[in-house]
Amino acid sequence: xxxxxxxxxxxxxxxxxxxxxxxxxxxxxxxxxxxxxxxxxxxxxxxxxxxxxxxxxxxxxxxxxxxxxxxxxxxxxxxxxxxxxxxxxxxxxxxxxxxxxxxxxxxxxxxxxxxxxxxxxxxxxxxxxxxxxxxxxxxxxxxxxxxxxxxxxxxxxxxxxxxxxxxxxxxxxxxxxxxxxxxxxxxxxxxxxxxxxxxxxxxxxxxxxxxxxxxxxxxxxxxxxxxxxxxxxxxxxxxxxxxxxxxxxxxxxxxxxxxxxxxxxxxxxxxxxxxxxxxxxxxxxxxxxx
Amino acid sequence: xxxxxxxxxxxxxxxxxxxxxxxxxxxxxxxxxxxxxxxxxxxxxxxxxxxxxxxxxxxxxxxxxxxxxxxxxxxxxxxxxxxxxxxxxxxxxxxxxxxxxxxxxxxxxxxxxxxxxxxxxxxxxxxxxxxxxxxxxxxxxxxxxxxxxxxxxxxxxxxxxxxxxxxxxxxxxxxxxxxxxxxxxxxxxxxxxxxxxxxxxxxxxxxxxxxxxxxxxxxxxxxxxxxxxxxxxxxxxxxxxxxxxxxxxxxxxxxxxxxxxxxxxxxxxxxxxxxxxxxxxxxxxxxxxxxxxxxxxxxxxxxxxxxxxxxxxxxxxxxxxxxxxxxxxxxxxxxxxxxxxxxxxxxxxxxxxxxxxxxxxxxxxxxxxxxxxxxxxxxxxxxxxxxxxxxxxxxxxxxxxxxxxxxxxxxxxxxxxxxxxxxxxxxxxxxxxxxxxxxxxxxxxxxxxxxxxxxxxxxxxxxxxxxxxxxxxxxxxxxxxxxxxxxxxxxxxxxxxxxxxxxxxxxxxxxxxxxxxxxxxxxxxxxxxxxxxxxxxxxxxxxxxxxxxxxxxxxxxxxxxxxxxxxxxxxxxxxxxxxxxxxxxxxxxxxxxxxxxxxxxxxxxxxxxxxxxxxxxxxxxxxxxxxxxxxxxxxxxxxxxxxxxxxxxxxxxxxxxxxxxxxxxxxxxxxxxxxxxxxxxxxxxxxxxxxxxxxxxxxxxxxxxxxxxxxxxxxxxxxxxxxxxxxx
Lengths: 290, 728
What we know:
The complex is a heterodimer. By secondary structure, chain A is α+β, with helices and mostly antiparallel strands. Chain A has two domains: 1-172, Uridine Diphospho-n-acetylenolpyruvylglucosamine Reductase, domain 3, CATH 3.30.465; 177-289, Enolase-like, domain 1 (2-Layer Sandwich), CATH 3.30.390. Chain A has helices spanning 12-21, 35-40, 76-80, 83-88, 90-96, 102-105, 110-116, 124-129, 228-234, 241-254, 265-289, and strands spanning 5-7, 26-29, 48-51, 61-64, 67-71, 133-138, 141-146, 151-153, 156-157, 164-171, 177-184, 195-203, 210-218, 225-226. In chain A, the strands form four sheets. In chain A, strands 4-5-10-6-7 form a five-stranded antiparallel beta sheet. Chain A has a four-stranded antiparallel beta sheet with strand order 11-12-13-14. Chain A has a three-stranded parallel beta sheet with strand order 1-3-2, with helices on one face. In chain A, helix 9 runs antiparallel to helix 10 and helix 10 (241-254) crosses helix 11. The radius of gyration of chain A is 19 Å and the shape is globular. The model of chain A has no long low-confidence stretch (mean pLDDT 96). Chain B is built from 19 helices and 29 strands. Chain B has a seven-stranded mixed beta sheet with strand order 3-5-1-13-10-11-12. Chain B has a six-stranded mixed beta sheet with strand order 7-17-16-15-8-29, with helices on both faces. Chain B is α+β, with helices and mostly antiparallel strands. Chain B folds into three domains: 12-19 and 432-568, Aldehyde Oxidoreductase, domain 4 (2-Layer Sandwich), CATH 3.30.365; 38-126 and 183-260, Aldehyde Oxidoreductase, domain 3, CATH 3.90.1170; 272-430 and 577-723, Aldehyde Oxidoreductase, domain 4 (2-Layer Sandwich), CATH 3.30.365. Helix content of chain B is 28%, strand content 26%. Chain B is flat. The interface between A and B is medium-sized, with 18 and 24 residues.
């Protein structure tokens, strides 16, 4: 294992400066659950690891009438231990409860999960479904982008040299809305997703029709997918098995998984459809319960 | 009095410790981290060794340059294994991914890893075959070998006249042992050319010679210690080439060397359980009695054999008209080693899934078909059919077979999730292994024993302590057990479930011999009849009368105390062999995703006289969990294109999580007739049935057989799709 230096800045500006000054050989670290493993196996060889947990705003959570702001280094357990967040942003807490085991959830952050940009990341489909905005700090200042366009390929994203994610912003939830995330894994727990589906729906006051919907898929392409056609199949339609099946079919149609030891293309496309229907159903039940 | 002095266990009702549930005497050390495993041994100056392996399935080594590794500061020695020694005659051809090429010993593990990376190895890649299931492809490549064929009766005629005939295909893929503590040793040369070895081994008494030969030293100069062992499952009997490498590098550097396999090499090189596949036709009369069996099975145990032999099929049963053929595939995969009850788990899957499908075809309850055929249990002790029957009744009650069973594929539930029940049965020997021990009673009454056996995580220390404490009427804490050293009397390797019988028999004999001597001394001193004496609650008693304390009795031994030898096995009734077990699974199968969940799993097992019920039950729980693993998710995945073992890590080699296990109910069948059989080993048998029992439960849930174990979601969906006319 290659030796590296460690720094723990206390301000965003200081962190940007450290990342920028190492010419691409510095890596930000939140929980470190992905980073340390990758350094150990030699996949990453940073000269400097910049621990961002000492920057106060990166570990802050702010839930208000205008939405939810999560510091990029907030560990998963703090999300699902928060009753307000669990009720309003269920898909995200569904994800946070199944990323690794309890020890991992005590360290790992949603921000880190996003920046690791694994196609099978459990929190990214939920962030997409919930309409998240990613706040990025860098040498040129701060910018905001939709999470939909953040990941660009396996382990790749739009961050430029010297940039790092400081915060994730989620819009306030509409009335009669519900969200859910489920993944398909061969075992019961602590496994990497073969397929992951995040869904957010808003129903009419009677709970009978879809008013709005957003669906995202994980692990079935080189990056998390925004399933627009699947969402469109729901919007304006009555909540019914037939409608949900149409959306599931549309989701299955855009999945482009690879054949690997986790499953064949055919198997993963099939499960994408099954899981999409089940997660829509769960989101509907949650919307009706609000 | 001499004629009454026969070795034997006491009346069951009188036992204070034997048969009770007693926690391990070394449990605290194990759970607290105090226990020192081989991987924990770090004597001052220890060097750490890492391995270079070949990752080609079949290749010719063209060049090996270790000089760059030697130049790295902190690298102390580089060892070249026989496969990497280009100077040796016929060397250089590599036959499987994971073959050891070189080892580097360095001051720190990271430096050793850098050394391994610096070695230059160049290969010419050759054609390979790693598909163990595709018999035709292997035949086309000339990679098969007939390993046996035999028949009895008139199979063809019987199949023609059988009322019901079923033709099926079944299989089970290869798995690795996946020992949590990898294979490895810590080797240190001491004064007078003595080699001091700590080894993660199941074979403490048998290792010295294996090291001595290759090192050119006397076996008497090799000390072997294994105080604790983190899992072996049949794969840790040998010194192994990496053990020899560690000893040689220690010699070369004059420093201790520790070489524990890395996880990938552990999975690739340190043992696998061979695969097995079968084409079978079987026929039954109208009652379900099987009248004919005709099968051909094949599989691979690696390039040099070790596949499932022809005997043993059909499993547990044998039929009047029976033909069987076996073929070995010589694949470019890592070698096989004994895996817990070899090769019974495979035999059980290949046989009992076929019997269950026959029941499905007949529209009969599988339970009834197994029951009908119990009279045809083969080559086993006569007690088994009736024991199986009793165990089936207990298991059926525990799982609710009568209430829950439905014909195959006829779950009345409407949703995607279907529920089903399945069963299988198994047998095993478990006779006592060779064991010699010394039991020492000191003049102050303290007791210790010495035996060159080992505790491979199975409770050997506890079993010995209970045996001695019960015999001497002392508390467990009064016994000190010394094992895990080849300086103690030799004992057989722990494999084949022979240890509990071996050590309990030998220690009982040694202890009874000592006790009779003490009784004679007490009788003389206190003027009582030695024949009336017993050791109870720390005293020597005659009937209801206390004669003296244990300590007073021990003082009669004089300042040197007393040392007695125990040996075994012997035909004196203390131990015997041959056990049976019945297991039943209650599963739910999601027919849309292919996920199988264990709702409840029942294991009923006989094993003669039980020394410690808690330890016995723990063995069964562990075995069932291991069985659920290979039934549902555990398998070696070979990449057909590259010939590589692609899931040789703890993330992708799918062992079950706690959430995958479900409820396990363990029931030890132990009427007095079992107690009177004496001690029989139990470590292996309960791991045999889960593959078949769970596969049968899935078949019952779906009405469709998923032919090959493990029953991954993809295989479940493929079988469902095929049954509906789709692609498999």
